[in-house]
Design goal:
By secondary structure, chain A is mainly beta. Helix content of chain A is 5%, strand content 48%. In chain A, the strands form two sheets. Chain A has a 17-stranded mixed sheet that branches. The chains are: A mainly beta, B mainly beta.
Chain lengths: 372, 912
């Protein structure tokens, strides 16, 4: 016969402490005093130049880089033709080659070589241009995103922001154009007005501020769709409104942000570069998680010829690039954002507010071509 | 018939014999004839009449014949006839000395005197000796059998696996599924000790004259929910068994170990034993002698458990109230077991019948549990059912981390068994299910669960021949939702299904041999991955990898035998044959280059059932014991194991979504060859047990992940892993004290678990093919577990564990590439995390010590991590905003501690 002693069922909770905690960790005996050479190079068919940087890696927590100057750097083709790169005058660890007058063949393989002033020779593996591709669509839809902010110690507040979800679609019939990297910068334009004594009209100030769709490059592989390598409606990020435009009806009220200029670079890269970037993405997004993958070394395709055992970091790659400029601005009457694609843009030098009208100011919809 | 006698009178008997011979004069036999009828006449009066009638003297101890009356009628009976009739069929013999002196002698004493009934017992005075057989049969047999049943005193249920040890000899047996035992002995006097884990030992002096039965009842130790018990509860087993490299824990007895969540962890308790540890404070499973988590076979009532952890390792999936016995084989694995190369943990539930309704359970801070047993059909059938459930979500709301506050943790498990006792047939059905759910903010969620079932049917065909059929089923399912970005939100699932049939036979009909043989068939079905979009907004395309199928067939045999008095062998052999079969897609790669996705040249689709690859081989399991003395022995063992399934993981701590992978065309089975030697010494009547073991384990075809391996839905996972070999070796020391006010043990392990790739290309190399420590490599491991019994109700428990920090890769440099500032990590596992140590204390109070009390409760207050050591669970880096506060660093390393402060818990356990 079960005899339950009810008085014993009551549980006394003494103290509830779940003490997950983290403290700064400074390991002893970290072996990081060697000179690790880092060489990065890129041959970009959009920029029409080869850029190679050479410097030494920094100790993990320092961020102090020493450039490798006075090196002899070459771009070497597989048919043994080679082109010398010369140091940039302002940044002597950066080596440049203008290829606008050089024919870079799709069929040849290329590699870079670098000889330091003390005779050490570094080379990359041979690489080749990936395939070509086209940008089919670039669009943005009004949506929301929840953002959590710490409003006071221990208190979190969730804010639902309105803004634009930005998507892009690309495709290619070239089997060597399977992997894409997306880099973007965004110039947010806004205005404010001031009234000055003695002036009959208030002065309008126009400000620009750089932001981005994502803090890191976005990397994605395509899928085969109707015989093409395609990436449909790939989300690039979110642009938050500074005010709620969808409910903004007062045409004459002062505006804050009224448009964004999106500068989008889309790269078609090789599978090696794709994997390299995936590793980078994995590293950049991994922190503080219990189940993060075990960290690993991001090794590129550079190596030391004179001392093969010496660790050499960096990547030389060749990429196809398409740059796009899009201007999104709010049209009060239509209660929607209008997209305007254009071919060139004189990007401002950093964040600034001026009285000068920018290249693309607020324009009534019937005054500019609308590209939907 | 049993006699209980005090036998203090050896000296008297000898004295009588001697003096009779020397003092009595020679005399002719008395020619008188006695005619008398004795009816219920006390024997003392009969002797008096006989003495006076025949003129003789009878010498004897009055207490021998106290209360004995005679019913006999003598007619013309001479002295010889009278004495013969009086003592025929009794335990006494007589001797007429010099015609007029009759000396009465107990037959067994006479046999001892003549060397026909040797006293092997510890008690030379033979106090409280139980006599088996008729004293009249003394000297009649060369060999006799001592048989009986060992039962639990409270419930009268048979106790399986109890040890019956004949002290001062090399004889010991273990009770079978009916609690029965049978041991062959020479007639003699022995001290027989009966013991079973969690029960008080009991010893009897047994005088065995002829074959007979002795049933005993054992009662639970006075602390009803156990105390800190030490492995190999039967200390002598440590020395006398041929089995080595085992760790045995009584789950009931370890319930007083401090428990992190107020819940006892049957599996993780083994980490306090030599040769066993876990990667981190949390994390699923164990690492046994440097082996990975997937190299352990966890059998719960014969069914394998593929994920042993609730809440990612907070506690094990095994309900401690269900468990009766846990045996971990970390070295010499009996041939009936295969499937894994590092260890087998055989977890047995309480499957015996009970005579009345009862149960047990516990109420803890984070979860509670209950287990009941119900006898039915005149106790022939017993139903047991129990479960656990968590209510820990509210704790997450107390955490400082926002994401954790938006998270959820939930789990439950249910287990049941139905035991049917049909005398010579025992049938048990077991079923188990578990479920875990974990959600981390709005980023991802996991759900996983085990479903197990087994049927065990034991038949005792004769007294020395029995069979057992075991059918086992296990299924493990994992689901992960990535919901961080709804347009890309996805659900990933994978699963493994296991079916096994094993038929074993046991034969003990050959003196000195214990024979076992059997066959086993295993069927594996693995669903390696399936992806579906999550939610309406998701644009993710569905994808699914093809199911994998394989079968493993095994034949095994084992014999335990003595070749000499002090040398015993345990020889086993297992042969396995493995087939990996379709339907399956197999990729072909360019010859002479490493297996990478870019080296794929073609693929073949194998039809359903067609064999894709085969493997197999012999697996010898050998051990030898040399009994150096009654209290010490030396053991040697060698065993080979093959494992056809591996857990593919690229995390340092095992996660639920790690993928089980069957051996196939490219992934070879793991092969382990292990050599071990040990010395075992018991001291001071087994109060102390000491042991030292050394081992060397050579492993082939181990899998290590490639740098940044992409495991999710990989169509060709062979391109993401690197084959390595391993050398694990170590020294394990153990000193244990049994009984007394202070109990406990010390253990120390020095061990290494090294790995080495052998690739020809960079893609297939780790650390340039140099030896490197595995993630399980913790060279020094030291544990102390002590219990101080202040009185019978109150006891204090303390545990301390120290180990070298696990091997880890740490950031060494930062560099720029692809427009980012990146981290360059060291070679794999080049560094070590800080050493681990932790002290836990507990105080336990039992409400009642009465054996037959229906409700027994026990309170345990424990404090985990008493001095608040911030042991590193993991080390991670974080980008910093350079400022004066962080000395303008761009990155900092952080050490994450799961329990960084003392954590008190209070638990109430009960049994009714």
């Amino acid at each position: 016969m079960l005899k339950i002693k009810v008085q014993y069922i009551a549980i006394i909770f003494i103290v509830i402490f779940t003490g997950r905690c983290e403290v700064v960790y400074e390991p002893e005996g970290l072996d990081n005093n060697k000179k690790i050479v880092v060489i990065n190079g890129n041959l970009d068919d959009y920029a029409k130049k080869v850029v190679v940087t050479a410097e030494y890696a920094s100790q993990f927590d320092q961020g102090i880089y020493e450039g490798i100057k006075n090196a002899q750097v070459y771009l070497n083709a597989s048919d043994e033709i080679k082109y010398r790169l010369y140091a940039d005058t302002l940044q002597p660890f950066k080596y440049l080659l203008d290829i606008s007058t050089i024919e870079i063949s799709n069929d040849k393989k290329y590699h870079i070589s670098l000889t330091t002033s003390n005779g050490e020779v570094f080379e990359s593996e041979q690489v080749q241009f990936p395939g070509r591709f086209t940008v089919n669509d670039f669009d943005a839809t009004i949506g929301t995103k929840d953002v959590v902010t710490l409003t006071s110690p221990g208190t979190f507040t969730t804010n639902t922001l309105k803004g634009l979800h930005v998507d892009v679609s690309v495709n290619s019939t070239d089997i060597y154009s399977r992997y894409f990297v997306f880099k973007s910068s965004v110039v947010a334009q806004s205005t404010y007005t001031t009234s000055r004594p003695g002036m009959p009209f208030p002065t309008t100030h126009r400000c620009v501020k750089y932001t981005s769709l994502s803090t890191t490059p976005k990397i994605e592989s395509s899928v085969i769709n109707n015989g093409m390598h395609s990436l449909l409606d790939y989300n690039l990020g979110f642009l938050a409104f500074l005010r709620d435009y969808s409910t903004y009806d007062d045409y004459n009220s002062p505006r804050t942000t009224y448009g964004w200029i999106v500068i989008l670079d889309i790269y078609s890269v090789s599978d090696f570069t794709y994997n390299y970037n995936k590793k980078i993405e994995s590293q950049l997004t991994s922190s503080e998680k219990i189940f993060d993958p075990v960290p690993s070394q991001i090794k590129g395709n550079m190596y030391c010829v004179t001392n093969p055992d010496q660790v050499t970091l960096g990547l030389f790659d060749m990429s196809r690039r398409i740059r796009k400029y899009y201007y999104y601005y709010w049209v009060t009457g239509n209660k929607e954002f209008i997209k305007y694609e254009f071919g060139t843009y004189n990007a401002p030098n950093g964040n600034q507010c001026t009285d000068t009208v920018p290249q693309f100011d607020f324009i009534e919809p019937n005054e500019i071509p609308v590209n939907n | 018939m049993k006699f209980h006698q005090k036998t203090h009178h050896w000296a008297l008997v000898f004295f009588l014999c001697f003096t009779s011979v020397t003092l009595l004069h020679s005399q002719q036999s008395n020619a008188k004839k006695l005619n008398k009828n004795f009816q219920d006449t006390p024997i003392k009066e009969v002797f008096s009449d006989v003495e006076s009638y025949f003129g003789i003297s009878i010498y004897y101890e009055e207490e021998w014949l106290s209360g004995v009356s005679i019913n006999k009628q003598f007619k013309d009976a001479d002295l010889d006839r009278v004495l013969y009739d009086l003592f025929f069929g009794t335990g006494y013999s007589y001797k007429i000395i010099q015609g007029s002196h009759v000396v009465l002698l107990p037959r067994d004493k006479l046999a001892q005197f003549k060397g026909k009934l040797v006293n092997y017992s510890n008690d030379i005075y033979q106090n409280q000796t139980i006599t088996i057989g008729n004293l009249a049969d003394v000297g009649k047999y060369e060999k006799v059998h001592l048989r009986g049943i060992v039962k639990e005193g409270k419930t009268s249920q048979p106790l399986i696996g109890s040890t019956v040890w004949i002290e001062n000899t090399n004889s010991a047996v273990v009770t079978d599924l009916n609690g029965k035992y049978d041991i062959e002995l020479k007639p003699g006097i022995y001290t027989v000790q009966y013991s079973s884990m969690g029960f008080e030992k009991i010893s009897y002096n047994v005088k065995i004259i002829s074959t007979g039965n002795l049933d005993v009842e054992l009662f639970e130790e006075s602390h009803q929910i156990g105390e800190v018990a030490i492995y190999a509860f039967d200390a002598e087993r440590n020395v006398r068994s041929t089995q080595m490299s085992t760790v045995e824990l009584n789950a009931k007895a370890i319930k007083q170990l401090p428990a992190l969540t107020g819940e006892i962890d049957v599996i993780k308790s083994f980490t306090m034993m030599p040769g066993v540890h876990s990667v981190g404070e949390f994390g699923s499973g164990l690492n046994v002698r440097g082996g990975g988590e997937d190299q352990n076979l966890y059998l719960l009532e014969g069914a394998p458990v593929y994920n042993t952890s609730h809440v990612f390792g907070m506690l094990s999936v095994v309900n401690p109230d269900f468990v009766k016995e846990v045996m971990l084989y970390k070295g010499h694995i009996p041939s009936e077991f295969g499937e894994r190369v590092s260890s087998v943990m055989d977890i047995k539930g309480q499957s015996n019948g009970v005579d009345k309704f009862g149960g047990k359970g516990g109420i803890g801070l984070y979860n509670s549990r209950m287990m009941i047993h119900v006898p039915m059909f005149n106790k022939k059938v017993t139903l047991k059912i129990g479960g656990r459930g968590s209510y820990s979500d509210f704790l997450l709301t107390q955490l400082g981390d926002y994401n954790m506050r938006q998270s959820a943790v939930d789990f439950y498990d249910i287990n049941s068994s139905l035991n049917i006792d049909l005398d010579k047939n025992k049938i048990s059905l077991f079923a188990y299910t578990s479920y875990d759910y974990f959600k981390y903010a709005d980023q991802y969620s996991y759900a996983y669960g085990n479903n197990l079932g087994s049927l065990n049917w034991s038949s005792y065909l004769t007294s020395n021949f029995s069979t057992r059929l075991r059918l086992a089923y296990s299924r493990y399912d994992v689901l992960r939702n990535d919901i961080n970005f709804l347009p890309k939100a996805k659900t990933i699932t994978n699963s493994i299904e296991y079916k096994s049939a094993k038929y074993s036979t046991f034969y003990t009909g050959i003196t000195g041999h214990t024979l076992e043989g059997g066959i086993q068939y295993i069927q594996y079905n693995v669903q390696p991955g399936k992806r579906t979009p999550y939610g309406e907004l998701s644009t993710i395309e569905s994808d699914e990898l093809m199911d994998e199928q394989a079968r493993e067939m095994a034949v095994f045999a084992n014999d335990k035998f003595d070749v000499r008095e002090r040398i015993s062998f345990n020889l086993g052999l297992r042969y396995t044959h493995y087939q990996y079969y379709g339907k399956q897609k197999v990729y072909e790669y360019t010859d002479g280059v490493p297996l990478t996705s870019t080296a794929i040249v073609d693929s073949n689709i194998y039809g359903a059932g067609s064999i894709i690859s085969k493997n197999g081989g012999l697996e010898p399991r050998l051990s030898m014991k040399i009994q150096v003395s009654d209290q010490s022995s030396v053991k040697l063992s060698y065993n080979k194991n093959q494992q056809y399934i591996s857990l593919i993981s690229n995390t340092s701590i095992s996660t639920p979504e790690d993928i089980w992978k069957l051996s196939d065309t490219y992934i070879q089975p793991i092969i382990a060859n292990q050599f071990a030697a040990g010395y075992y010494q018991n001291l001071k009547s087994n109060t102390y047990e000491a042991s030292v073991e050394v081992y060397f384990k050579k492993l082939d075809n181990l899998l290590e992940y490639k740098n940044d391996a992409e495991l999710e839905l990989s169509q060709h996972i062979e391109t993401e892993v690197i084959e390595t070999k391993g050398n694990n070796y170590g020294l394990e020391l153990m000193l244990k004290k049994n009984g007394g006010k202070l109990e406990g043990w010390l253990s120390y392990t020095y061990s290494r678990a090294m790995r080495k790739s052998n690739g020809l290309y960079k893609d297939k190399m780790i650390n340039d093919n140099s030896w490197f420590p595995s993630s399980f490599d913790k060279p020094n491991n030291f544990s102390i577990v002590t219990t101080y019994h202040y009185n019978k109700r109150l006891r204090f428990t303390g545990t301390f564990n120290y180990s070298t920090g696990r091997a880890a890769s740490l950031p060494e440099y930062q560099f720029k590439s692809a427009g980012q500032v990146l981290i360059y990590y060291s070679d794999r596992n080049k560094y070590r995390l800080p050493d681990y140590h932790r002290l836990d204390l507990a105080i336990s109070y039992d409400e009642s010590l009465k054996r037959h009390k229906k409700w027994k409760g026990s309170w345990t207050l424990s404090v985990i991590n008493v001095y608040g050591r911030k042991n590193a669970h993991s080390v991670f880096y974080r980008k910093e905003t350079p400022s004066i506060a962080n000395e303008y660093k761009m990155y900092s390393l952080y050490k994450l501690a799961i329990i960084g402060i003392p954590l008190p818990t209070l638990t109430y356990n009960f049994i009714f």
